[in-house]
From TrEMBL:
Protein name: Type VI secretion system lipoprotein TssJ
Keyword field: Lipoprotein, Signal
Highest taxon above the source species: Bacteria
Region forming the signal peptide: 1-23
Pfam family, one: T6SS-SciN
The keyword Lipoprotein belongs to this UniProt entry's keyword annotation: yes
Amino acid sequence: MKKIFIILLVGLFLSSCSSVVSVKIDNVKNSNLNSRNDDVPLTVIVYQLKDVNKFAKASDLELITREDAILGKDKIDSIRLQIAPKDNIVAFKVVDEEVPYIGILVLFANKTKKITKIWAKTDDANGFGTKKTLKFEITKDGIRHI
């Protein structure tokens, strides 16, 4: 009985050391206007990364066409999403110890002078315990961490 209690206690301690982080992305109104000024959906690529150096140095085109070759072993996983205007989504939930960084690439209809790429540490998530969240907002000026 004492061994079972110790095993449960160790398991509880280990599970409390890491947190689950939700990655939330808000797409505000008129963030992605096409040539006819229609508010169209965005394509967003969300990366789970071990390190951000290669992501930060890579161009948008390199990431779109050759993400595996460019990011190499720094890439844990990625997901490509469509986000409608005035919509918000939770891209995924990750364990902060397994995924130290999140990178986001936004593909706009018109890419003039917009911030298309951003990254954040999962340790920087707001919240407590299992309710930690990394929040990003996409506006007409680009993407930003909020």
